[in-house]
Amino acid sequence: MNTRILLVEDDDSLHRGIQFTLQQEGFQVVGAQHLQAAREALQDNEIHLILLDVQLPDGNGFDFCAEIREHRDTPIIFLTASDQEFDIVRGLDLGGDDYITKPFRLREFLSRVHAVLRRRNPISRTEDKTNLISGELGLNIEEMRLEKSGREIPLSITEFRLLSLFMNHPRSVLSKDQIILQVWPDGAEVLDDNTVAVNVRRLREKIEEDPQNPQYILTVRGAGYRWNG
Predict the structure, then answer these.
(1) Is-contact 68 22, C-beta < 8 A?
(2) Which residues on neighbouring strands pair with residue 49, listed in sequence order?
(3) In whole angstroms, what is the distance from residue 8 CA to residue 56 CA?
(4) Which of 85, 96, 115, 206 has the greatest CB tally within 10 Å of its CB?
(5) Which domain holds residue 164?
(6) Residue 109: inside a domain, yes or no?
(7) Which residues form the OmpR/PhoB-type domain (predicted)?
């Protein structure tokens, strides 16, 4: 993933935690702890998303958002401890794409980051590829239909989403958190790692010749799963 995120947060501990979380998710992170550093980062890097604290040592995140919107439409998510309706409305009216109050749950935070990126980059979504071919498997996205060696294999909605995610990312290692956020975007915060394992097992039983010795969906110990296509 080549998505580059500018993180503007002056709290050292929170900054390190968010940066680590985003990097584990596969994002590139450019950090800034004050507005001047953020301005320089925007000039020197191609930024795809800005995570912006409201209260900063040398200024206000709301004012910086308005400044950014004069020149570019890079998506912005506000990070702030204030949950007052006035502040939320102000941030969104100034051009913010989302507003997350601290403290926040990790999976909900990542889900909302992915959601903003999907809204701004719809062409990159899995569903835009009509036909996916891998070995003996052929997946028709529009018809939600899977064939193996010419024989149709019925899939549940979840199995279809999971398979299309794997086939769209051949040879890429996908973490369980990444899979949860893509396959269950509306309920990511209530799911756990076992949910992924159960659904991977069910999918293997449908597409693998020997589910105990899979050739398509490989387990990468300690990291997640990789599509061997």
Answers:
(1) no
(2) 5
(3) 9
(4) 96
(5) 131-227
(6) yes
(7) 128-229
